[in-house]
Design goal:
The protein is α/β, with parallel strands linked by helices. The protein has one domain: Class I glutamine amidotransferase (GATase) domain (Rossmann fold). 23% of the residues lie in helices and 25% in strands. The chain has 5 helices and 11 strands. It has helices spanning 8-11, 29-44, 80-91, 110-116, 221-236; strands at residues 15-20, 47-51, 67-71, 95-99, 120-122, 127-133, 147-152, 156-157, 166-172, 194-201, 204-209. The strands form 2 sheets. It has a 9-stranded mixed β-sheet with strand order 2-1-3-4-11-10-9-6-7, sandwiched between helices. Strands 5-8 form a two-stranded antiparallel ribbon. α2 links the parallel β1 and β2 (47-51). The termini are far apart.
Length: 238
């Protein structure tokens, strides 16, 4: 018998959990980012749950999500049970999307280092640089031009933590001042400076983007469609 009641959750193509943490460096971008994610979920018909409580990774309810997004959050403060919950989620075929500060880990958990792919070392002051698409077939960049100008903190990274990383975006270091730091001069990464990549990892899928320090980044339609393409891939593997 028809009841006339239709579950809105049942209409979602998949469910996404966004985990954030406030800190002195990234707290300003989180409100703008979460409002942008809500609009993205409404536009693309996926379910969205936002939390700042790491205990969610202990719960079996994590199984209802297709993707976990670490939005300016990292795993350094997860307890062992929460770490195991995140690991099990990936082992079961789940998707991970790390945004900006997700790579600023202290490096003490090797599995998470591999999940994120590379670990942040330092960055110059915010400035404009030229991005270049490296994998045209990846869903996040389908609608992007081959090159585009973006303003951000240009994160530098240590060596790759996984051998399966596929670069999505790189930044041209000749397009900005790599030495313009906050004190002592710093160095860039040289000719190969990736800022976004993906991989098949430990039974699931992982994507990371260093873009998104400024609150204004989450008002940029091109950037949000880039992030949705990554979420779509992490959820569906297509």
């Amino acid at each position: 018998m028809l009841t006339g009641i239709v579950s809105m959750k049942a209409q979602n193509q998949f469910e996404v959990l966004v985990f954030s943490q406030y800190d002195q460096y990234h707290k300003e971008s989180i409100p703008d980012g979460m409002e942008a994610f809500r609009k993205l979920a409404a536009e693309h018909v996926f379910g969205l749950t936002w939390t700042m409580d790491p205990s969610v990774f202990k719960e079996e309810s994590l199984n209802e999500y297709a993707v976990v997004v670490f939005f300016n959050a990292k795993a350094d403060f997860l307890v062992e049970e929460e770490k195991e919950g995140l690991k099990q989620f990936i082992n079961n075929g789940g998707g991970f999307v790390g945004i900006h500060a997700a790579s600023t880990t202290d490096g003490s958990w090797p599995w998470y280092n591999q999940l994120v792919g590379r670990i942040f070392t330092d960055h110059p002051r915010e400035q404009s640089g030229i991005l270049e698409v490296k994998d045209r077939d990846f869903p996040a960049v389908i609608s992007l031009p081959e090159k585009w100008i973006w303003t951000d903190e240009w994160y530098n990274f240590g060596e790759a933590q996984s051998e399966h990383l596929v670069d999505v975006l790189v930044v041209d270091e000749s397009s900005y001042d790599t030495t313009r730091g906050y004190g002592d001069p710093i160095e860039g990464m040289g000719e190969h400076h990736p800022v976004a990549w993906y991989q098949e990892f430990d039974g699931g899928r992982s994507f990371y983007s260093a873009l998104g320090h400024k609150p204004e980044a989450y008002h940029n339609e091109r950037h949000m469609e880039f992030l949705y393409g990554a979420i779509y891939w992490a959820a569906r593997g297509e």
